[in-house]
Design brief:
Blueprint (H helix, E strand, L loop, with lengths): L1 E6 L4 E5 L4 E15 L2 E5 L4 E4 L5 E16 L7
Antiparallel strand pairs: 1-6, 2-6, 3-4, 3-5, 3-6
Amino acid sequence: MLCHFSMRAGSRVPQHSHPAAQNGYLIRGRIRFFVREGSFEVGPGDGYLFAGLEEHGAEVLEDSEAIECFAPARSEYR
Protein backbone atom coordinates (compact mmCIF):
# COMPACT_ATOMS: atom_id res chain seq x y z
CA MET A 1 0.00 0.00 0.00
CA LEU A 2 1.45 3.36 -1.06
CA CYS A 3 0.28 6.55 0.70
CA HIS A 4 0.94 10.26 0.20
CA PHE A 5 0.83 12.32 3.42
CA SER A 6 0.77 16.12 3.87
CA MET A 7 1.44 17.17 7.48
CA ARG A 8 1.41 20.57 9.19
CA ALA A 9 4.20 21.80 11.45
CA GLY A 10 3.40 21.06 15.09
CA SER A 11 1.41 17.90 14.31
CA ARG A 12 2.22 14.81 16.35
CA VAL A 13 1.74 11.11 15.81
CA PRO A 14 1.61 9.31 19.18
CA GLN A 15 3.81 6.27 19.85
CA HIS A 16 2.19 3.25 18.22
CA SER A 17 2.95 0.04 16.35
CA HIS A 18 1.23 -1.99 13.65
CA PRO A 19 1.87 -5.34 11.95
CA ALA A 20 2.82 -3.68 8.64
CA ALA A 21 6.39 -2.65 7.88
CA GLN A 22 6.53 1.09 7.04
CA ASN A 23 9.02 2.48 4.53
CA GLY A 24 8.98 6.24 3.91
CA TYR A 25 10.59 8.98 1.82
CA LEU A 26 10.38 12.65 2.85
CA ILE A 27 9.69 14.93 -0.13
CA ARG A 28 9.79 18.23 1.78
CA GLY A 29 9.88 19.49 5.36
CA ARG A 30 11.41 18.04 8.50
CA ILE A 31 10.14 15.35 10.90
CA ARG A 32 11.51 14.00 14.19
CA PHE A 33 10.73 10.31 14.75
CA PHE A 34 10.72 8.69 18.17
CA VAL A 35 11.70 5.05 18.62
CA ARG A 36 12.56 2.93 21.65
CA GLU A 37 16.28 3.78 21.32
CA GLY A 38 15.71 7.57 21.16
CA SER A 39 14.89 9.81 18.21
CA PHE A 40 16.13 10.88 14.79
CA GLU A 41 15.28 13.62 12.29
CA VAL A 42 14.70 13.36 8.57
CA GLY A 43 14.77 16.07 5.91
CA PRO A 44 14.03 16.25 2.18
CA GLY A 45 15.38 13.23 0.33
CA ASP A 46 15.79 11.09 3.47
CA GLY A 47 14.23 7.66 3.79
CA TYR A 48 13.17 5.75 6.90
CA LEU A 49 11.98 2.26 7.78
CA PHE A 50 10.04 0.83 10.70
CA ALA A 51 9.76 -2.93 10.99
CA GLY A 52 6.37 -4.51 11.63
CA LEU A 53 5.39 -4.08 15.31
CA GLU A 54 8.25 -1.60 15.93
CA GLU A 55 7.03 1.22 18.21
CA HIS A 56 7.40 4.68 16.72
CA GLY A 57 5.91 8.17 16.85
CA ALA A 58 6.60 11.52 15.21
CA GLU A 59 6.65 15.28 15.61
CA VAL A 60 6.33 17.35 12.42
CA LEU A 61 8.90 20.16 12.72
CA GLU A 62 8.05 21.91 9.41
CA ASP A 63 5.13 21.56 6.99
CA SER A 64 6.00 18.22 5.39
CA GLU A 65 5.09 15.86 2.59
CA ALA A 66 5.98 12.17 2.55
CA ILE A 67 5.39 9.02 0.55
CA GLU A 68 5.05 5.87 2.66
CA CYS A 69 4.67 2.23 1.75
CA PHE A 70 3.06 -0.30 4.09
CA ALA A 71 3.42 -4.06 3.67
CA PRO A 72 1.02 -5.70 4.11
CA ALA A 73 -1.62 -3.04 3.45
CA ARG A 74 -3.16 -1.43 6.55
CA SER A 75 -6.86 -2.26 6.70
CA GLU A 76 -7.70 0.95 8.62
CA TYR A 77 -6.55 3.03 5.61
CA ARG A 78 -8.89 1.35 3.14
